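cache lookup: miss for this entity combination. No prior model stored, computing from scratch. Input as submitted by user K.M.:
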Amino acid sequence: MTASVVIPPAVGLILGGLILPMLQVRLRWLAVLVLPLATLLLVWQVPDGVSVKASFLGYELALVKGDALSRLFATVFAVMAFAGGLFALNQDRVVELAAAFCYAGSAIGVVFAGDLLTVFIFWELMAIASTLVVWSAGPQARGAGLRYAAIHLLGGVLLMAGVAGEIAANGPAGFSKMALDTLPRWLMLAGFLLNAGAPPLSAWLPDAYPESSWSGMVFLSAFTTKTAVYVLLRGFPGAEPLIYVGLFMVFYGIVYAILENDMRRILAYSIVNQVGFMVTGIGIGTEMALNGAAAHAFTHIIYKALLLMSAGSVLYMTGKRKCTDLGGLFRTMPLTTVCGIVGALSISSFPLTSGFVSKSMISEAAGMQHLASVWYLLAAASAGVFLHAGIKFPWFVFFQRDSGLRPDDPPWNMRAAMIFFAVLCIGIGVLPGPLYALLPYKVDFVPYTASHVVFYLQLLLFSGLAFFLMLGWLKRTLTITLDIDWFYRWLGPMLARHLDRVVTGVWNGCVSMAKRGARGVPEGIQQYLGPEGILARSWPTGTMAFWMTVMLAAYLVLSYLR
Amino acid sequence: MNDHWLVRQSTIRLLWIVFAVVLAATVSMDLAIEHHPYFGLDGTLGFGAWFGFVSCVAMIVFAKALGAILKRPDTYYDS
């Protein structure tokens, strides 16, 4: 009955994104702020079940299918598009905002997709739009954007192969929980995990995201990895390999972020780290763990965007992104500092911030399932998050030494976006009820027990103690840390150059030999049969008579000797 | 340059003292609070404190060792 009136929520942002570059500045600002809010309204008008269908190549597509999980992700995506748009209002490169809105719309398309083909269509739209966001940063982002696109197209191929195999085996079907028992399903899982930043190909994330503009990375941090979390939650809840993949991601993010000097690359590594917590939760697979993963995706989008807005503001005002160039900015950027600290405390799951009410559900679920090693590793990782992002980011950017830089806080729209998200971080942390009400399963979890709060305070504060005691070991250097991308950024090109040199050498050798041969034949003919050639020149009769005489004389001598 | 109150030596000393008091307070709270450990080790006194500290030191040492092998100048891919 409601099917005829439901407008696909993805449409507004995608179409709006496409017309955005054609609008006048004021109208564009209005559109940037109104479109996400209108999308939010549309999200909340989607009923449970399939409400919009379409026919494509003989397949019935469920373009819009609603439930609590879809609405949760679509809600935070729309809120993110609003705050990101507000933050990026003064971005001169209009293409970036246009691409970012198409990107956000496609992400909403994925979370409302009721079948695997629809997931794939919006999945690829996301890949294209997000590549444009990276590229719109300018010429220096071209290489990273190309690598980003190549990896995501590879992910798309894996996903398409999986979807095609699944449809061939089981016919066109919806998108719901699948057992990991066939090759196509493993391929789909690989395609999903690639977007989540899982090993072995996680390097695309810290490679590409920090090359985007000061506003571009705010959008990029939100959609790709979190739609991946969504599809894993929908398609593979309780798949045990995800526990190990997630734990690897958690520690990979921490270790690489500890070694990193670029403030936005630190935050990029910490995206992998945080998504690792969610993937672990999905692997655990109980209602509490899945609620925790979904809630953590929701809170993560907000505090990570806040951290990147804070870093983006520093980049916008100073043009610098390396910790070795920064420091002491708290003097003149107080609001950016405070908002950065709120984001940093939230990502560290400090009590009274949003991360605390979501992440602790995942650890609790591991404990309740008696997964001892998982629980201990998650506890160690929670301390590690405070170490690599919670203190490291604000300390090296806003405090440590005085860099001599005296930038002001950024323009009003950027400040407003940061304040909005900082308020949300603390609001959700203090009053988690409304977030819990949005979660897919009934929440039976009380985050604020004395035991819980004291445990997390101990974990985090002693992590802080370790940070300051070992500050000498954490001193920043002008270095990067090699990753799997070394194979396609260094080894591959190097082999290609060598191969090029070898093939060119062999080719040149063959060509010169052929040339020499071709030149030698007429030269030989010329030498022996030409006008001066020994076989062609005229011989004087006297010479012939002389040699005849010599020959006859020799014959006579020889006959006497006999 | 270093005239901001937050970077004065006296303030930093005070912050360390406050930090030490807070650290001691969070550990001593374990005596008053009843924990519900899932396993065994997580029920020990000040578990969060020592476990958090030790795991952070371990992660820093591991990162440092990995960095010794995998760190390169940040112009590595530019050349």
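stored under new cache key. Strands of chain A lie at 49-56, 59-66, 479-481.
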